[in-house]
Amino acid sequence: MQxxxxxxxxxxxxxxxxxxxxxxDLIAVGSIDGRYEDLSSQTAAPLENGVPGNRLGGLGSxxxxxxGTTFLALPDRGxxxxxxxxxxxxxxxxxxxxxxxxxxxxPSDPGSSLPFVLTPTLRATTLLSSPTPLVYxxxxxxxxxxxxxxxxxSGAPALNAVNHTHYFTGRSDNFEPGQSSTNPGNARLDPxxxxxxxxxxxxxxxxxxxxxxxxxxxxxxxRVRSFALPDNLAITTLSSQxxxxxxxxxxxxxxxxxMEGLAITPDGKMLVGMMQANLEQDxxxxxxxxxxxxxxxxxxxxxxKLTEGSGVSEIVAVNNHQFxxxxxxxxxxxxxxxxxxxxxxxxxxxxxxxxLNGAQDVxxxxxxxxxxxxxxxxxxxxxxxLNAAGIDSYFIPSKIEGVAFGQDVVIxxxxxxxxxxANDNDFLGMVADPTKQPxxxxxxxxxxxxxxxxxxxxxxxxPGYVAQKIRAxxxxxxxxxxxxxxxxx
Length: 489
Fold this sequence. Notes:
Blueprint: E1 25-32, E2 62-65, E3 70-74, E4 97-107, E5 116-127, E6 129-130, H1 159-163, E7 166-167, E8 191-196, E9 202-207, E10 213-217, E11 223-226, H2 242-248, E12 259-264, E13 270-275, E14 286-293, E15 299-305, E16 311-317, E17 322-328, E18 349-355, E19 376-381, H3 382-388, E20 400-405, E21 409-411, E22 414-423, E23 430-432, E24 445-447, E25 450-457
Antiparallel strand pairs: 1-25, 2-3, 3-4, 4-5, 6-7, 8-9, 9-10, 10-11, 12-13, 13-14, 14-15, 16-17, 17-18, 18-19, 20-22, 21-22, 22-25, 23-24
């Protein structure tokens, strides 16, 4: 398979208003068709639900800067929007991975509506694995696959035997019964955020199943470390079904709403995780931020008050104590994938600036944490900005989840910083046309791409911004593909 280059789509006008910081401007928009395949040809065979195992989707679940023009895109647990087996919440043995992209920003032609053209180039697909054995479900008693005849079978991917390794997958039954959800021996992984170490040799990934925070070797994709998270984040009664887990645990993360966001401070010393929703023992809208000292593993917890969205999808470091937090609702393009669904318009997709300096540690507290919440200020109203650029709210993706700072650009002689925003398209290549409602005989399916929006800002817009300096790694930032032993140049 050759390296894929996907040209950007341009929108109708420059962004000029709609945010608390009016000079944060949209400078480029790009997309990648949701029906492409990634570079891991070894995983191309159909999954339990019939979807190809290397569908190039969910790229905005996590999005990280890796220096230069290199970015890493992290899909979540895989294409489980296709119904096939409720006993495992329709999850499949999709192998966890991240995609390496070159994101080129080139000046656009005179008269173009945006100053830059964004060209994403898929460079590599890296599968995530463990050097030691993992626990997989055997599928016993969990019904049948999509054909209604074939038993569900083991959650262990066949590629384990081929490559003599132990891959993490999205199947919800890949856990050790009787153990805490944070047991690092579990094979199930629902990756939601990714960041790169300053030396360029490691990636850090947070997840919702544990929650987990793992460190992987960036060259091989093998796990090298599991960070011990506070016990109050874990659940003790595990199930392959979301509803059973939620009903059975009075303490710990809410199922499918674990550690959705992860930041790394520019000095490379601290990870900062963000829970998507309140813990079971906390009041709704009282969310937790967890800091992890990378060297020692020591943790602290701080409170965040959800004010507008239904949850938090990402956190990214501005400097060593300030962060941008992504609050969003579930409305917008692709939240209604079927022809029978009623479409909704995007409402809340906002970035808030927070500061951990002087924050109260709430590790030993529970309930209503509002009085201890870190201060927050609106930085960017994404919906308003895109509306001002001529994008209808019905076509703004519902799952705006990936946020990363990027390379600097020069606009009219001024050097400005960039901020990339990406969506999780749920691996759905086509969805119902949101401009037409159920019952309309002309309603059909329309493409549902992986989208990238690039904004530019100045130091005056975000005082104190410090760019993370990441060392380039030879062999990682070229056209190199790793899915065991295959390379693409």
